[in-house]
Amino acid sequence: MVSSTVENYLKALYKLANENAEVNISELSSELEVSKPTVNAMVKTLQQHGWVIYTKYKPLKLTEEGRKAAALILRKHRLTEMFLVEKMGFGWEEVHEIAEQVEHIKAPALFDRMDELMDYPKVDPHGSPIPDKDGNIIQKDSKKLSEHEVGEKVMLIALNHSSKEFLEFLDSRDISLNTVFEIKSVENFDDSMVVSYEKHPSETLSQKVCERLLVEKV
Amino acid sequence: MVSSTVENYLKALYKLANENAEVNISELSSELEVSKPTVNAMVKTLQQHGWVIYTKYKPLKLTEEGRKAAALILRKHRLTEMFLVEKMGFGWEEVHEIAEQVEHIKAPALFDRMDELMDYPKVDPHGSPIPDKDGNIIQKDSKKLSEHEVGEKVMLIALNHSSKEFLEFLDSRDISLNTVFEIKSVENFDDSMVVSYEKHPSETLSQKVCERLLVEKV
DNA sequence: AAATTTTGTTAGAGTTATCTAACTTTATAT
DNA sequence: ATATAAAGTTAGATAACTCTAACAAAATTT
Ligand SMILES: [Mn+2]
Ligand SMILES: [Mn+2]
Ligand SMILES: [Mn+2]
Ligand SMILES: [Mn+2]
């Protein structure tokens, strides 16, 4: 049976492959905060599972089977997060750590039941898509808030990175998924934006924040 | 952090200590289906945690701290089982395997939330008591059905052993917790009992079954 | 009391997952 | 083109958890 350690490497590889197609040992090493020799050894395990194509000194390529296996772990992670929020009353900033553990549980029925009880949600509490049982994943196309212009009205549909600190910042400003922003102005100096949204007639968001908010035009 | 392997040894030790007070390496070895040298090594780890008193060639004694640590794992196991049955619609025969994994998750808030959502249940789906947050456990006193006599009316409050096969047998006879039996007769030859209960005017239960049903007089 | 069986320990080894140190290969800069 | 830096690999070690084989101690039987 695949250990949670191996599953975490696969997940990290999947994440990096979504950003770059080809992935370096070094990237995986810093993503997972383990040494390069450790990654080097683990890559051989991933290869034995048919999840990665590996040739000495060449960048790693995730295979289709690897992509699917990773998506099925993400499915468990995201169903868990959604279940914790929707059915158990946790805040969106509390669920990632728990899901990081629960995603390794080998009990398909548990996750299918969560799925059913929530009536087959399409996204997790942070707006990330939930892969289906075959590992298919529908990525809604969205743009960063920072790429939009003054006067546009956009709705928050997902987050780019979702650290606890960032989520708590959003909570403090009453920003949640589906919040509709109107862009009032963009500061040339630091690319910060002034936006308005329900109950907040004027709020300034730093560029860092605007890059992490994925929105679609309304 | 304590690994799930170590936690499983502690649980097994707790279980055996409840039956015998003193526990042998051999007993643990067969309970967990690992070799005796493996147990011998692990006992030294348990000792380092202060969970067991160990002297070469002497039987093991669970310490008070060990008892408490074990009870807290059992708490997570049983809350999980109850949650799966009460809130997620699983059958009582499906939940043990899942709980065996979930009990190792390090997220106190998850289990406290389950507890709260179920309004602090006292027993799991098999009638076993759920320890409180301090590891205190209230064992309801009950007798085996086999120890009762003709004419008595008793209610099923817990199960002695709860293998999937046994639970499925009970399902097939519509026997569940709180079922009230009236003992119609006891067969001297094989100690089987004929009982009646709701919708079952006459059902024969083997001695093996009667020994696994924990009941109290009504 | 001696023999036998059961129980427990030690020794030695394998697997997984990790590290550091040293080296090699590839990429980048001068 | 050469030097330097970055990336990748190999070697060797450690910790956790497991095994089998061999031996020692304790308990049981004869
Ligand atoms: Mn997450
Ligand atoms: Mn994880
Ligand atoms: Mn159980
Ligand atoms: Mn377990």
How would you describe this structure to a colleague?
- With 218 residues, the first copy, chain A, is α+β, with helices and mostly antiparallel strands.
- Chain A has helices at 4-20, 25-32, 36-48, 64-86, 95-102, 108-117, 164-172, 207-212, and strands at residues 22-23, 52-53, 60-62, 143-144, 153-159, 180-186, 193-197, 200-205, 213-217.
- Among the domains of chain A are: 4-62, Arc Repressor Mutant, subunit A; 143-217, Roll (SH3 type barrels), CATH 2.30.30.
- Chain A contains eight helices and nine strands.
- In chain A, the strands form two sheets. A six-stranded antiparallel sheet of chain A has the order 4-9-5-6-7-8. In chain A, strands 1-3-2 form a three-stranded antiparallel sheet.
- In chain A, helix 2 (25-32) packs across helix 3 (36-48).
- Chain A binds chain B through residues 84, 87-90, 94, 97-98, 101-102, 105-107, 109-110, 113-114, 117, and chain B through 84, 87-90, 94, 97-98, 101-102, 105-107, 109-110, 113-114, 117.
- The complex binds manganese (II) ion (MN) (4 copies).
- The structure holds a DNA duplex (30 and 30 nucleotides).
CATH class of one domain in chain A: Mainly Beta
Shape of chain A: globular
Mind telling me the C-alpha Rg of chain A?
19 Å
Bound molecules: manganese (II) ion
How would you characterize the largest beta sheet of chain A?
A: 6 strands, antiparallel
Order of helices and strands of chain A: HEHHEEHHHEEHEEEHE
Counted by DSSP, the helix tally of chain A is: 8
- Summarize the largest interface: chains and residue counts: A-B, 18 and 18 residues
CATH architecture of one domain in chain A: Roll
The end-to-end distance of chain A, rounded to whole angstroms, is 46 Å
Full CATH superfamily name of one domain in chain A: Ferrous iron transport protein A (FeoA)
Major sheet strand order of chain A: 4-9-5-6-7-8
- Secondary structure category of chain A: alpha+beta
